[in-house]
Amino acid sequence: MSTESFVPEDFEPPTSLATDRFVLEPLGPQHNESDHAAWTSSIAHVRASPGYPDGSWPPVDGMALEDNRADLVRHAADFEARRGFTFTVLEPGTQHVIGCVYLYPASSPEHDVDVQSWVRADRAELDQPLADAVAAWLASDWPWERPDRHGR
Questions:
Q1: CA–CA separation, 51 and 112 (whole Å)
Q2: Residue ranges per structural domain of the chain
Q3: Residue 14 — φ and ψ, nearest 5°?
Q4: Which CATH number fits domain 17-148: 3.40.630.30, 3.20.80.10, 3.40.50.150, 3.30.565.10?
Q5: Distance between CA atoms of 55 and 18, rounded to whole angstroms?
Q6: How far is residue 117's CA from residue 131's CA, in Å, rounded to a whole number?
Q7: What is the per-residue pLDDT across 38-58, written as a single tens digit (0 to 9) for each?
Q8: DSSP code of 3?
């Protein structure tokens, strides 16, 4: 593995995961308005999500739509450069964002990937099914062996 990528050079990262309850696709600026609406409607819920230990995101006072777009552009660039993989969680058959999944290099040597996810407050019942689906997906389609799922 190179220092810029935390997946093997010959690994082709999956770009989707579909269930009957949600669909994952790479997050990008095309999701800006729906992504912004999803997390701004659920700031306290996202901050309290099990397995989402960030603690500083989302900003308590929110952020401007333009700043959110810049964040999505950064996540898309990370995906392209294979530095990290962020997926938007959509309602099946729509572009309605209901959450996000983040796969980034682990900060602890005991793990090889840091896995975080959240869903919007009005979709809280999908939190555990999403975490379980992502865990199975990591085991079957990704190269990591020691994910940090933050207690999930």
A1: 16
A2: 17-148
A3: -60, 150
A4: 3.40.630.30
A5: 28
A6: 7
A7: 999 999 999 888 777 666 788
A8: S
- The C-alpha atoms of residue 136 and residue 134 are separated, in whole angstroms, by 5
Q: What is the mean pLDDT of residues 89-98?
A: 96
- Reported for 124-130, long-range contacts at CB under 8 A and 24+ positions apart, including other chains, are 124/45, 126/21, 126/22, 126/89, 126/98, 126/99, 127/49, 127/50, 128/152, 129/19, 129/21, 129/22, 130/22, 130/89, 130/99, 130/101
**Longest pairwise C-alpha distance within the chain:** 42
For residues 96-111, one letter each, b for 16 or more C-beta atoms within 10 angstroms of the residue's C-beta and e for the rest, the string is bbbbbbbbbebeeeeb
pLDDT surpassing 60 at residue 74: yes
Neighbours of 147 (CB within 10 A): 19
SS3 (DSSP) at 23: strand
Say how far apart CA 38 and CA 46 lie, in whole Å: 10
SS3 30: helix
